[in-house]
């Protein structure tokens, strides 16, 4: 066998293997081309999940006959006008998409240059380029891809069912749409409209807010806070969900670097870090984050589908992002998710237990008719209730008397009223566990243990940072931990940060480190595991949260034991004090385990419940 | 099998053996105690496969035989019987169960045949020596607290025992450490232990034997060792156990020999002062000891609560002033094992191990690693 240069058709097929994984990736390339062409409206249509036919129509600048012929050649692009790979202002730049698609499918491109009278069409089938012919088309470009992967049956075999490929295409288009609010996007699958996003007007932030709501739903809009941060070469904006609104995987973390959808480990890691000890473990936030970096400071040419990027200064991007999210969450930290709380519960009860609901309002009547001040305990109105109430078979009165221990507020002192914040005025405690408070437009139910736990935890965390460094127990017998050479370097790189947390390590031979001191809080702990966890985390996420995690976990346990328990009766001053403390404490919307500390039931929703609205 | 026994005697024995039995077992017979009546008396045996305890007691035997029955249930039954009652155990009763009868109470318990009961094989253990009961109690008390509970460093989860030549005299050394502090106690070398290999006694075994020592009236304890097993015999009770299979670290390397700043201080006054000031540092467990000429200042603080404490006590100290941090729990553990009036601390600096011992007793030394506060 002699070495030879591969024919261009094969080269294109190899490139297609990297760039075009599935219909969604072909869609991405084509839509990005349309965006780069300055389109205002992009229409996508697909049949058979994009396997049979996939077409993208835009109203962009279009191409002349000559350009059309060049466009399907490898490494032909209009997007690097200065020939400078470090000044990339377009989404594409590799000049590979069209020839790659052309080599594995039947591609036809029709286009009319803006201002020109004639339209042209070219076809490429399995890498064979046809002639340019005149065709009828309105201004813009229409690209049609038929029989994707017909030249590479192996790839075709690995595609999923039509519905799943369609879903991936929709997801891809949504991602792109998030970054381009000024462009209208439509997607039809097998003739049915799947996505219709009108163009959003106004300045970028306004338009983006609108588009995020359109794509991610109103639920997200209600349960998210905006983030924003800048430094000299990087600008971050977007929306992140409150810690009580989360998903089981990280797929709902929409990330964009210079309007390019990415899934970059550095950014995902930073998000994880920012939500540390506010999110239940194994849950992920929902967010749309847009990072703008001067193209000089970011390398997008590291991944064939551009899913990863490299920043010139990783650390500053990370800290800027973590700072921005933390800031936003502290700002919105008293908020707890509205959905999934009582609102949903009530809805479910109405539908599933209509029968029982008929009874419950009657019990409510008792409370409404007999004024609360007259009867400080709920038990009393029940025991003095008229006979027909007692005979209701559905209500077990002794049971109810035992369980409904309600403490109701006396007239609040003017002093208490003065301090009332957004969590309202405590009205009652029931089941010795939940505090009910009332605000202007809603009722708030607070889980007293969860809320106090968070307050204690934040105090503890502050006290730890008040020490210049965390007290460290020096080891009589230093522990030697064997690591791979890479892990060792990773740990040593972070040794200064770790030392501030009380973990002092030294280099020990080529592939081991010596642990000299450990945080005293950890006591007699498994040092090997701690170091290995840290090493794994540093190499995966580029940060060393495992140790802070562990320390916070211990704080959380201490906090849990040092907080008022469920079942402890509180008087009204104590309840109000708790609410005021919650208003002052960061992240008080969720407890240390990520559960909500309170739910808000809006008056409007209650009115809906009683069909007053 | 049938015998009659006094409740108090039976309860004491069952109390010993049921300690070994795990609460939950995947192998059913391990929840049981093996009871055998023969010409030697009644023997009770229980095991968790690592440790095995046997106790032989006298009783009025009416019929020889052997069987196993649930240990914890038997113990709970016997515990609740009337004091001074006589208990009759019969197997098999008419329902083929173990019958426990006392006064008007009668219990029937399920059984498993003795052939299923595992035996830690009665190997010959080559090293044999005796220790005074009080001596053994003492060395355990003075070291046990320093052993590690962290299971990944399993080789530190026990007491290391080995003979040591100290020039003229030969001693038996008992050592425990958890990597933060170390206790090292010496005892005269018993006859027969001269050539023994160093062994590591598991914490659980040490705790068990310590309980038995309190309960026994025996003058001496016979100890037999191989490189993988140990057996303690006190009159009628025998406790056999596996040893920890591991290499104990070279602990002598961490005992400093060149600490030249000497502080002597009353044990009681120091311990009570540490106990007092530690109230405000419950969370960090850190205490700062500042040694100045002829007095010591103890300080603790909790910056978050804004609390702090300070106490000064008299001491003998003639070197340059030194400030050193400790975990006060560790310090109290050590002080509580110093029985003399005065403790001697020797320091090098605030980041090197300190050595603590009783001025009137050189048989025990404690090494404590400081804390950086």
In short:
Chain A is of the alpha+beta class. In chain B, the strands form 4 sheets. Chain B has a 9-stranded antiparallel beta sheet. Chain B has an 8-stranded antiparallel beta sheet with strand order 6-2-3-4-17-16-15-10. In chain B, strand 3 (41-47) and strand 4 (51-57) form a beta hairpin.
User: How many runs of DSSP E, i.e. beta strands of chain B?
Assistant: 27
What value does the Rg of chain B take, in angstroms? 25 Å
CATH homologous superfamily placement of the largest domain in chain A? MutL, C-terminal domain, dimerisation subdomain
Beta-sheet strand percentage of chain B? 35-45%
Do you know the CATH topology of the largest domain in chain A? Answer: formyl-coa transferase, domain 3
For the termini of chain A, the CA-CA separation is 82 Å
Largest sheet of chain B: 9 strands, antiparallel
Uncertain stretches of 5 or more adjacent residues of chain A: 337-393
The fourth-level CATH homologous superfamily of the largest domain in chain B is DNA Polymerase III, subunit A, domain 2
C-alpha-based Rg of chain A, rounded: 31 Å
User: Can you tell me the overall shape of chain A?
Assistant: globular
Strand content of chain A: 15-25%
Number of domains of chain A: 3
Q: Architecture of the largest domain in chain A, according to CATH?
A: 2-Layer Sandwich
